[in-house]
Write a structure and sequence with these properties.
Layout (H helix, E strand, L loop, with lengths): L1 E6 L4 H10 L5 E4 L9 H10 L2 E4 L3 H10 L6 E4 L11 E2 L6 H9 L2 E3 L3 H15 L10 E6 L5 H8 L13 E2 L9 H8 L6 E6 L6 E8 L9 H11 L6 E3 L24 E8 L4 E8 L3 H15 L9
Parallel strand pairs: 1-2, 1-3, 3-4, 4-6, 5-6, 7-9, 11-12
Antiparallel strand pairs: 7-10, 8-9, 10-13, 12-13
Helix pairs in contact: 1-9, 5-7
């Protein structure tokens, strides 16, 4: 029986991963005494005893944990941003291509993608790989996201119930220095040579997100309509269980003419919409996920399943 250790159980992602792992009869959980959770020797023992380790820690703490692993057979899935652009780590988004999935299966070091990056890359990667947009295309994108992605501190601010909570008055665009921490992985793993202009927007919903990419079809490397782009994405993901390209121009999929960004909550699904106005040469690709599911804990469990040779969709 394989042994699994979660380093960092108190955070949102760590708790969700632990909750999902509790469904497995195939795995044995290694537990650390709460009083010793910061003891380097005790952490090292747990890390090196495990077949698979989940790191749900801040970047510096994740790097420290990796340095404590001396067992060559211990496989690590890191949920922080510490290694998402590191050349010797595998980027854990297996749906991007056959090579991405094969790399996850064989890797001992997998870095779990960020939530915004996951939705962005599922939209953008096939277009760059298929040479529909050039690597230097001036990509702009926005993300509307639930506040749980900000962790415990932000959750407490949004859920403070004193009758006058400014956080819940309206959606709030943030990261206005245009330097969001997910941008390096969004750029590198999409194949772009320049960072997108990216504005995330905090909504008043706990979880659920949608990332939107806007395209001018006259600037594409190939002459394509919005329907053509939809067909390309549909073909790219046709065999995937967790990525679905929804039917084109189907109003029945909308909620009163709009997209419900919470529709994938409590799943490991990513659903892709393509909207277009060909007379204006405009296309929007929108990908929605649960930022705590496919955007965090669900993706981590999916990667573990692949690494251990289990059914990729087990307990997802």
């Amino acid at each position: 029986m394989k042994k699994v250790f979660v380093d960092g159980l108190s955070g949102t992602t760590g708790l969700k991963i632990h909750e999902r792992l509790s469904q497995y009869n195939e795995l044995e959980m290694i537990k650390i005494d709460y009083e010793k959770r910061r003891d380097p020797q005790e952490r090292a023992r747990c890390l090196n005893e495990a077949d698979v380790v989940f790191l749900c820690l801040p970047d510096d703490a994740a790097r420290e944990a990796v340095s404590l692993v001396t067992n060559q057979n211990t496989r690590i899935i890191d949920a922080s941003t510490a290694y998402r652009t590191a050349p010797d780590w595998t980027y854990g988004l297996p749906e991007l291509s056959v090579k991405h999935r094969e790399a996850v299966i064989s890797s001992k070091r997998v870095t779990n993608p960020g939530c915004h990056a996951t939705a962005f890359l599922l939209s953008a990667y096939p277009l760059v790989a298929g040479r529909v947009i050039s690597p230097d295309y001036p990509v702009t994108c926005q993300s509307l996201t639930g506040y749980s992605g900000g962790g415990k501190a932000l959750i407490e601010k949004y859920e403070k119930n004193d009758g006058n909570n400014d956080y819940t008055k309206a959606p709030r665009p943030y990261s206005l220095t245009l330097n969001h921490k997910h941008l390096p992985e969004m750029t590198l793993h999409s194949g772009l040579t320049q960072e997108p202009i990216f504005i995330p927007i905090l909504g008043q919903n706990y979880k659920g997100m949608a990332v939107m990419i806007s395209l001018h079809t006259k600037l594409l490397s190939k002459q394509m309509t919005a329907k053509n782009i939809h067909e390309l994405l549909s073909e790219h993901y046709q065999s995937e269980r967790f990525v679905k390209v929804l039917p084109y121009a189907d109003d029945s999929l909308l909620f009163d003419g709009a997209v419900d960004i919470t529709a994938c909550n409590d799943t490991n699904l990513a659903e892709i919409f393509v909207f277009g106005n060909d007379s204006k040469g405009s296309t929007v690709i929108m990908t929605r996920i649960d930022n705590l599911g496919k955007g965090a804990s669900g993706a981590a469990i999916q990667n573990m399943n692949l690494m251990l040779g289990l059914d990729e969709a087990l307990h997802l």
